[in-house]
Specification:
0% strand, 3 helices, mainly alpha, 80 residues
Length: 80
Amino acid sequence: MAAYTLLQLVEVLLMSGVVMFGVLSHSSTLTVLGGGFLLGKAILNILAPEGGSVYRRSVIGYAVGAVFVLIGIVAIHFMP
C-alpha cells in the first residue's frame, strides 16, 4: 500500500471519528466540521482523474468543505 493511500485512509478514519463524536455528544458544530473535512477529501479524490497536482485538488476540495462548514455553522446558529 502506498504511503499516500495510507495517509488518506488515516485522514478518513480520523474525520469519521470527529463526525461520530459530534453525533454522540449532540454537538452539531463538530458533526458539521467532520462532514466538511470528509466532503473536502471526497472532492479531492473525485478530481483525481481530471489531473492536476495534489495541492491544487486539495485547495479546491477543502475550500468547498470550508464553505460547507461555514454555511452549516450559520444554519445551526439560526435554528431555534
